[in-house]
Write a structure and sequence with these properties.
This protein is of the alpha+beta class. The protein has eight helices and 15 strands. β2 and β3 form a beta hairpin. 23% of the residues are buried.
Length: 296
């Protein structure tokens, strides 16, 4: 017996009553955690989870698809799963493959066999069903806009980037705007592009805010002073107050990511960790023992 598909709500870790904003935040958190580049020792499992997370979000982030899923479950998107259903042996959809620098996801055509969801790669195959939820028919007008996905670096997503790609055998220069986030879809007119973002070794992103953990010397935490902090724009100096406690968070206003659909930028949050030396010199040990006399 084939294993049943996981519940979309369980995949994202949200309840059925979750708001659109909660679903989006859960998706970004899961997508970042299970990005294949973070699990090179178990990439096959990470890719499977990453696909499940993207699939769950594409349904739950869309009101009509979510409503269909809440009513029929996975049957809403399975061949013959729902009376008059949304899939079948003679659906007008075809799977894609590799094309140039992109991973080709789906295009539409007449004919074809099998489940249109089998083997899709990080794209958004659910867009092809939008015409059906409004009472349309799978044998209506076929859509011909091809879908592709591309993976860019974290800093390219923050600052924007231009890429030279090959579409239909022709070279094209495309511009990906600053502030794009994981899973965003960009319409270039003759094709749609879904963007995936590689995780950064230092920075983490939540919406348009940046998070970074910085270790400071024990002496600096006690006495205070200045220290240089990495940001997406380069290093900046901040003031450390005397008596700073482990886990203290410093907010740098306007040092986050450019808002993709508006003006301004997010913030950067610096989590301060106290660096405790594993081995002490004789003088350091003597100083620490003297400090014990003043411990509260």
């Amino acid at each position: 017996m084939a294993a049943s598909k996981s519940d979309y709500y369980d995949i994202l870790g949200v309840s059925k009553s979750a708001s659109a904003d909660e679903i989006k935040k859960a998706y970004r958190k899961q997508a970042l955690e299970w990005h294949p580049d973070r699990h090179k020792d178990d990439k096959e499992n990470a890719e499977r989870r990453f696909k499940e997370i993207n699939e769950a979000y594409q349904v739950l982030s869309d009101f009509q698809k979510k409503s269909a899923y809440d009513q029929y479950g996975h049957s809403a998107f399975s061949p013959g799963g729902v009376p008059g259903g949304f899939g079948g042996a003679d659906t007008p959809f075809s799977q894609g493959g590799q094309y140039g620098p992109f991973t080709y996801t789906y295009t539409t055509r007449r004919g074809g066999e099998g489940n249109p969801f089998a083997g899709f790669d990080f794209g958004d195959p659910f867009e092809i069903f939008e015409q059906f939820f409004g009472g349309g028919t799978p044998f209506g007008r076929a859509r011909s806009t091809p879908r592709y996905s591309i993976t860019i670096d974290f800093m390219e997503a923050v600052g924007g980037v231009s890429k030279e790609v090959s579409i239909g055998g022709k070279k094209r220069k495309i511009k990906i705007p600053a502030g794009v986030y994981e899973g965003v879809r960009i319409n270039f007119g003759d094709f749609m592009l879904s963007v995936n973002i590689k995780p950064h070794s230092l920075f983490e992103r939540e919406d348009d805010d940046i998070y970074v953990t910085v270790k400071i010397p024990y002496s600096l935490a006690i006495l205070g002073g200045e220290i240089e902090i990495p940001t997406v724009d380069g290093e900046v100096k901040i003031r450390i107050r005397s008596g700073t406690q482990p886990g203290t968070v410093v907010r740098l206003r306007g040092r986050g990511v450019v808002h993709l659909h508006g003006r301004g930028r997010g913030d950067q949050y610096v989590r301060l960790s106290i660096l405790v030396p594993e081995k002490l010199t004789k003088d350091q040990k003597k100083f620490a023992e003297e400090l014990q006399e003043y411990d509260l």
